[in-house]
Amino acid sequence: MPEIRVDETRCKGCELCVTACNLKCIAMSETFSVTGYYPAKLAKLECCTGCGLCAQICPDLAIEVWK
Amino acid sequence: MKLINKKPSSLVDKPMRYCPGCGHGIVHRLIAEIMDELDIREHTVGVAPVGCAVFADEYFNCDMIQGPHGRGPAIATGIKRSKPECIVFSYQGDGDLASIGMAETVHSAARSENITIIFINNAIYGMTGGQMAPTTLLGQTSSTCPAGRSVAVNGYPIKVCEMLAQLEGARYLERTSVSTAPGVIKTKKAIKKAFQNQIDCVGFSMVEVLSTCPTNWGMTPVQGARFVDEKMTPIYPLGVFRSPEQ
Amino acid sequence: MAEKILMKGNEALAEGAVRAGCRFFAGYPITPQNEVPEYMSWRMPEVGGSFIQAESEVAAINMLYGASATGIRTMTSSSSPGISLKQEGISYCAGADLPIFFANVVRGGPGLGNIAAGQGDYFQSTRGGGHGDYYTIVMAPNCVEEMGNFPRRCYELAEKYRVPAMVLADAILGQMMEPVEFDFEPVDPKTLKAHDWALGIAAGRERRIVRSYDLREGKLELLNLERMERYRKIQEKEALHENRQTDDAKLVVAAYGTSSRIAAGAVKMARDKGMKVGLFRPITLWPFPTKALATIAEHVKNFLVVEMSMGQFVEDVRLAVCGTARVDLYARPAGVPSADEVFTEIEKVYQGIR
Ligand SMILES: Cc1ncc(C[n+]2csc(CCOP(=O)(O)OP(=O)(O)O)c2C)c(N)n1
Ligand code: SF4
Ligand SMILES: [Mg+2]
Questions:
Q1: Pocket around ligand 2: residues whose beta carbon is below 6 Å from it?
Q2: Residue C183 sits in a domain of what CATH number?
Q3: What value of ipTM does the predicted structure carry?
Q4: In the prediction, which pLDDT does C1 show?
Q5: Which residue out of B47, B96, B99, B117 has the highest number of ligand 1 atoms within 8 Å of its CB and is therefore the one to mutate?
């Protein structure tokens, strides 16, 4: 099952990945990270196809795509 | 399972200091991926501007030089003429390239210097806190046109690709946008071509990237991306303005 | 034995740089230094170097910034207004420790001034010139032969200390013709040692960064302190001057460049009339030969400064003698005095002594 892994130390919570994901798999965490942002997370595990669009738009190289 | 997007080795592995959602980070990653893919990291010299991307010299894992505001094309010219075996790119903002450094931009294009320019058009002076740029849209507010840019006071925004397209020396000019993921993919293709052109000794290549400055636009990154699509692209249409194949 | 060649000052300057290994020149036309880019436009390709007529002096100095960051010997030249435009770039070179070489063939100023000789750029040259805390090594030739031989010295000093170096000439030195004998064998750049800071092919080494900024707390001061130490060494070791008949002198005329040639004629006239007059001529204006002048001031209590400016050079003379001698000034801002006129001034001052 493809998935994304978000590096919470890099994510600045810009939410661009949330809009980039056509299948709406990504949401923002309700708790903030050590850097003080609400980082992105894979909200619906089974829906990720590993297309990598979220990683394309991510300005902070915070998303790893595993397939 | 396999990691399908390894971090490019042409980027130093540390967090970048750009604001949340800023397009600079996206374009940095693309350039680094391209350096990896073309296997040119060890003979690339990058020129960092004055602007938010002044720190590019810390982020790109190749030889770097940081110089005076707007003079990137002249600096790149000096490097390329002295070391033609190097791949030289200049990374510049819109204030840097289209205002203070316009003469260097135009003349390096006219000479068709065999260099690659990455031009980040975010319609604002990011680093200094959101003043009007030569690319600020009519009606768009900034800290030095708080009522919105007006023709009477500030004149018209400069369309750099359209202007440079008049020059025979400008061999490759393309405008792209990083407001959407497909736009990012297209931007990478364009920048890769701009580097490949240099390897093929084609001459002056520039990619203008429509980017965001959510911080100084007073928007969320998502609103900023929408602003690019809805407000900027009608004024700055995407596309190829000159190509070596022409 | 090297041959003597009849050359124009500006051509000697350009040829001297080429022989010293310069392989990159960028410049913008301005009188009275046009012979330099004109000469370089054919000479650079001949030796496998690059010549660029830049779109402005601003672009020219930044081309140098890039070219010299690759470790090669570079040159730009201009005249007063153009050098003003280059100051931001020179400051960046100083801040990034790049050993560029440039020449200012000074004209009358301020503003557009005229195209005749002047010495009004003394402060600009010796006090850094651009923004921030830095110095440029300044050599002041007074004949065409020195115009040809000083570039090599400038490169060597610039590279040794990693600072910009310049030749400060003027319209007369640039335009006049004299025989030149180069006092060094042409330098093959390939034989020069590669610099461990130069940008280029990074295979097998760490990447390098050339920059003038450091935003980390307290770091910029450390960089500047290190540079200050280099400046101190330059001041201690590299000052050059020439004394003529100062040992028994009651009055010493101090002058540099073209003024020193004219003053030498006037000093000779004074000696012919039995007056004990000598000449002190700094060859480097920065570092200023302070110690040499202070030594003269131990026994000479009267100085006459001759300069083609309002009183810039005189300040360094006064700082050097530090109140131990009287210093008079004959200022000709953008005027060229004759030897007779200088002699008249010498007589006036000399008669007033004791
Ligand atoms: C000679 C000079 N003038 C002005 C500045 C101040 N300055 C720094 S960045 C900047 C504007 C940068 O805007 P832009 O090129 O659009 O880059 P951005 O920050 O938006 O990416 C200015 C005016 C400077 N450093 N040097
Ligand atoms: S100020 Fe604007 S351009 Fe600069 S880093 Fe922030 S978002 Fe990016
Ligand atoms: Mg900008």
A1: B 18-19, 22, 24, 52, 122, 126-127, 213-216
A2: 3.40.50.970
A3: 0.97
A4: 52
A5: B96
